[in-house]
Design a protein that fits this description.
The chain is mostly beta strands and 96 residues long. The chain has a single domain, classed as 10 Kd Chaperonin, Protein Cpn10, Chain O. Helices cover 0% and strands 40% of the residues. The chain contains no helices and 8 strands. The strands form 2 sheets. Strands 6-7-1-2-5-8 form a 6-stranded antiparallel β-sheet, with no helix packed on it. Strands 3-4 form a two-stranded antiparallel ribbon. The two termini are 24 Å apart.
Length: 96
């Protein structure tokens, strides 16, 4: 990906929705709830304070993160769906 978000924004690829329950019931697409987690695919340089100090990003590319429901803006890049959001909307990083 050749896109670089500005300031403290990140580009996230949502994790795939579950299409089947553990008991084998298949869920139709319109009933699926979009997950609130994904993989960070690009990050900006960080947040610039009013004093001109750059606060670097906490998240890194390839981190799996959990974010607030409804956070970010949906975009399409190279035919793929992504979310762009501020780092502040990320709740946490999933440790391997």
């Amino acid at each position: 990906m050749n896109y670089k978000p500005l300031q403290n924004r990140v580009i996230i690829k949502r994790l795939e929705e579950k299409k089947q329950t553990s008991s084998g019931i298949i869920i139709v697409d319109r009933a699926l709830e979009k997950p609130d987690s994904g993989t960070v695919v690009a990050i900006g340089p960080g947040k610039l304070t009013s004093a001109g100090i750059l606060i670097p990003m906490t998240v890194e590319e390839f981190n799996i993160v959990i974010f607030n429901k409804g956070a970010g803006s949906e975009i399409k890049l190279d035919g793929q769906d992504y979310l762009v959001m501020r780092e502040d909307d990320i709740i946490g990083i999933v440790e391997p």
